[in-house]
Amino acid sequence: MSLALRPSFPDYESVSKHNNFNPYSDNGGSVVAIAGDDFVVVGADTRLSAGFSIYTREQSKLFPLSANTVLGCSGCWCDTLTLTRILKSRMQMYQQEHNKTMSTTACAQMLSIILYYKRFFPYYISNMLVGLDDEGKGCVYSYDPVGHCERRTFRASGSAGALLQPLLDNQIGKKNMLNAKEEPVSKEAALSILKDVFISAAERDIYTGDSILINIITKDGTTEETFQLRRD
Amino acid sequence: MMNPPAFWQNGPAPGNFYSFPNMQPQMKPEESRQHSQGPVTTSTSILALAYDKGVIVAGDLLASYGSLARYTNCPRIFKVNNNIILGASGDYADFQYVKEFVEQKIITEECLDDGLFLKPKSLYCWLTRILYQRRSKMDPLWNNFVVAGIQDGQPFLGTVDKLGTAYTDKVICTGYGSYIATPLLRDAADKKPQLTLDEARAHIEKSLEVLYYRDARSFPKYQLGIIDVDQGVSIEGPLEISQNWNVAYSIKGY
């Protein structure tokens, strides 16, 4: 009897159905960073979610790596937990080996290498590394999950990244405006634009909301600020 | 892949069992390893709520085979030490596997006799690592763990899922409870941020009742774990969910 003629008895199927296990999850979250001449501000929403569930409304997604370097992460939360733990120990190893704190630019390069090291089973995270460079200027490094790295002065990433980047291009980059002159953004302007764009993101993106945690980095160190968003 | 020929038409091959119709050729163990494809004996939601002086955790005693209510006396909330209660939902065998590791950790620690005991944040962190390691091997432990405890005089409540996704919050529910009980408990916790034990217990019991009406994999027998700054750890149960099906008569249209 050929295989095609055999009757099918689902109950006697002895090979288990492939319940494809997915090692990644999209836990949402958005990060926005704006750099100026002598400062950088970075904000991340505090909502951790998966699908239609909000896991928690108060999860910080900003990880201070040194006195003037902060990493913002969004995407797969279990990968974020692992990556930030590795970075923390690498920062400590550098400190103890060289007796100095790693610079922001060195951190940026290290992060790219750590991400590329897992090129074929990547950390599914949109990273944004901000800080002050060797001249004291604000810098924003943004990454893709496999380690491509790019330095910018402003960037939005995460679940509302595609929604917010054009808004930042317009408001900070002065793109598509007539007679607008490009001038360095002030700290106060950067902060108020940051809050405004998050309010907009919370209106349209279900994975962004609850509140934002803002870190303001200047030569004097890092200060924190929170700002409430809609909680629905 | 090469298989030895069957002894007779549709019969077993050497070293194999009888081949049933439509069976796929089995891969040999040395060529591949079967990883867990999904949970088998499953338990449903765990509900947990932090109150002003501690944490309360509840979970029923059922372990199911799919929709079959198979085992009706499976405790899945246990005392780790005087600082921690651990609750789990998902695959019951995986839970028992992890439970043995945790219990061995406690025994090893007691043998040291240095007066130091495992703290909830340490266990929580350790669980994130073992679960993340297994998910990275594409062989996950199919569980959601809930760690409740007291650390530095403050209530601690955290959870870890099968990927190693971990977070802490005042309200944590797993499984179907995350859809039905979380909104009820969050509402209660938002209205009164510092709940007392009695209030927290009332909210948990009400949530269990609502969940029992709607979650087809739930069971009316449950355990309640309470960890309190003053009173320490207690695991109560088996307790019975209060139920009133009179509302069922008013449901029409099905």
Task: Please give a structural write-up.
The complex is a heterodimer of chains A (232) and B (254). Chain A is of the alpha+beta class. Chain A has one domain: Aminohydrolase, N-terminal nucleophile (Ntn) domain (Glutamine Phosphoribosylpyrophosphate, subunit 1, domain 1). Helices cover 28% and strands 31% of the residues of chain A. Chain A is built from 4 helices and 12 strands. In chain A, strands 10-1-2-11-12 form a 5-stranded antiparallel β-sheet. Chain A has a 5-stranded antiparallel β-sheet with strand order 5-6-7-8-9, covered by helices on one side. Chain B has 254 residues and is an alpha+beta fold. Chain B has a single domain, classed as Glutamine Phosphoribosylpyrophosphate, subunit 1, domain 1 (4-Layer Sandwich), CATH 3.60.20. Chain B is built from 4 helices and 13 strands. In chain B, strands 1, 4, 5, 6, 7, 8, 9 and 10 form an 8-stranded antiparallel β-sheet that branches. In chain B, strand 6 and strand 7 form a beta hairpin. In chain B, helix 3 runs antiparallel to helix 4. Chain B starts with 40 loop residues before the first strand and ends in a 14-residue tail after the last strand. The model of chain B has no long low-confidence stretch (mean pLDDT 91). The chains are: A alpha+beta (232), B alpha+beta (254). The interface between A and B is medium-sized, with 33 and 25 residues.
